[in-house]
Request: fold
Amino acid sequence: MSKIRLTNLGIVLTERCNLNCIHCMRGCSLAHDMDIKTMQNIFKQVDFVNNLTICGGEPMIDEELFTSLIDTIISSQFLLGSLSFITNGTCYNDAIASQLLRLDEYINHLFKDNYRSCNVALSFDEYHIEQIKEHPLSEQYFHNMAKLLSSPYYCGLVDINEIYDSGNAKKLDIPKMAIEAYSQYYYEKKGKLDHGPLLSILSDGTISECDGEFTYLREHFNYGNINTDALENIIKKRAVKCYTKVGFNYHVNTSQKNFHKI
Reply:
């Protein structure tokens, strides 16, 4: 079995969310959390991830679940280049910050000569503001967001430049982007398999390759399950094989997400 190295991996920690924004491509909040077995199976099959993104739902909505993920990453001795969390910021608190510190120390231990850290990106726009203002816990939510903005883990705002025709956004009478799968590529040499640009694993272990409403992804972009299928076999079946690393890099570099400071 080859050692799998992914360019970008998105993990949906939970499909629960404390907001219900009208532009959300994910749709309604669902009571689906990733269990420890699924977390472990991800890190057993993947040797290295250049950019790991943890999202939801709202990935910080449950402190115990969040801690379980951090515990699993550290105990697995998983190798990664960078790690980002995408959050609406409303659930950020001291308990979450303490777990980020543990993770930050682990990443820095991996790269003793090259400082790395975990990053938290804030998903925030006019639709989020509207939802938070109307929420009964708005005062606490804005307090939590202010705490995140002043934390050492905050890396900037998620650059939202389009709204996808998925989930809640289907009801919006505005121009929207269609949900499309990324073209997949892999390069294999000497027992190592590099894949790009992106794979995502939903809370139940479903393997997919694009964003959108969770139920829609399971029905239309479901390529297997990390708990029952070999990821290597799925990649070789779904992706185009590249015979030079140069060609592979050309394709995977198009997938980078944009963040900006405020």
